[in-house]
Amino acid sequence: VIVPTLSTQTVVSCAPNPRHCGGTGGCGGATSELAFKMIKENGLPLAMSWSYKSWDGNSPICQPGIFDKAAVGIDGWTVLPANKLNPLKQSLYDSHGPIVITVAASGWAHYERGIYSDGPAGDFEVNHAVVLVGYRDPVPEKKQMGYWIIKNSWGDSWGENGYIRVEMKANEEEHCGWDFHPQEGTACDGDPEQTWVCGTCGILYDSCYPTGIHVKE
């Protein structure tokens, strides 16, 4: 079965962000919930209709008529409990697909390979949306490190062919700290100016996945 690639550029360039949730929109920042809202209302075209252009951190304006080419739609989305480990792991099975998560990615720029860790002190300044595709549980008695498998949006030349493995600590739910700049992650105008974030690189804080995926007529 060949699964067609959807137009990520449409999500980046066309999702409205009037309350500046996670930023100013486009490559200036938004949230996965805003993206799913746009797809529910308009559908999403295939990548062949508009391929990804924002490798350099710039987003072109939304193409007029792009939603006339919509190929798939969704009925809604599910937001997982914040800062909880088991719901995130279980949802990878239950949703039969990847999950959108937000992470603290300021230290990722020079990642090339291996298992990335934010260290004992942690990094909780959530500022980037990525896709969680899998994980391996830690086995402390065997000194086996656990990790999350994440697909990034910085091209295949970055990391492990566009992916990164991030440490899954044995105490993920207790590895927490304050995010003092939540507007760079998921917060909107008028939201609290700090928020409590858990997991390596804040991986447990904000996650969701689409429901009712269907082909558009």
Automatic annotation (TrEMBL):
Pfam families: Peptidase_C1 (PF00112). One of its GO terms (molecular function) is cysteine-type peptidase activity. One of its GO terms (biological process) is proteolysis. Residues 1-186 form the Peptidase C1A papain C-terminal domain. It comes from the Eukaryota. SUPFAM superfamilies: Cysteine proteinases (SSF54001). Keywords: Zymogen. Belongs to the peptidase C1 family. This is Peptidase C1A papain C-terminal domain-containing protein.
